Amino acid sequence: MLDFALVFAIAGTVVAFKYLSSKAADPQSDEAWRRAARRVGGEVELKPRRLLEIPKRRIRSTIEDVPIELFNEEESRGKSSAVVTRIVTGSLRGSELARIRCEPRDIVSQVSRKLGIGELPTGDKDFDAEVHVSGSPRALALEFLDPSTRRLVARGGQFDLERERFALQREGEQDDSEALVAMIRFAEQLVLRWHALLRGPVRLAERLGLSVDGPPQLACGVDRVAQGTLRSRTVTLSIRVEEEVALTLLSIDEPNVDEWTMERGESSAFVITGTPPDGIRALAETMPRCLLGLHGTTKTMDLAFEGLTPDHEEVIAALDAVLVASTSPAPYR
Prior knowledge:
The chain is of the alpha+beta class. It folds into 2 domains: about 25-200, no CATH class; about 200-325, no CATH class. It contains 9 helices and 16 strands. The model is unreliable at about 15-25 and about 330-333 (pLDDT under 50).
């Protein structure tokens, strides 16, 4: 009986030693985190192990005033636990109602893709085969995942945009400086892409000489971005983001006798409803493809452009043509 107790005690000691050893600080890992912090211009925080805890490592950096925090932690998974390396950004302007998630496809998402359930296809066949995308509003998620961002995600793996923050994680303790830097750079590019969506309407307003209200709120229906006077006409720039649509809108104070509409049809030609002014109707064949439609009401004429970052030169050209067609003297520049 005594021998059994002794063996049991020794075995318990060995198991405990191995457990604690697995959580002990690793000088090489610490140095990898220091190197990564230097590479990204961040600050590193290293905390030694506490009894049954793993060593805590953390890197803090910023990109365009958005904090980025990379850290390791032990995640509880039922009766066991696992070490993960996470990265979380600070709050993103204009993202209150946005939700985007990209993750590598597993068996479940492969089946959902075949059934067309819970899918948000981007139209990029190679990307859609490897990455499962979900989000709301759907149009905003697709706008965010432009070709360069899809290439980035295909290389970098999964991420979430939720509660106004980007978050991503990797399994295990990352102890390679290159891998740590890659995670931070990945998060930086996501932040930069989001800011590009915010800046697009603002820069367009500045090109037009409109007075900017402030950064737009994405995913909240229609949000006015700027307003000003062009050729003695009040012009308002707004964005519209709903579940299935993301548009840049220009509204001109233009009283019309009757309501009318010019919208792109399946052949990309304009389908006309009502009676638009002759000068506007004559523009149908010369308008850029990014102009999806025009709508005249008793108070305004609205131009709807595809997406939140349409080509500025094409937008300015379309607005120029409409102003010339609906007024006289020299065209707006």
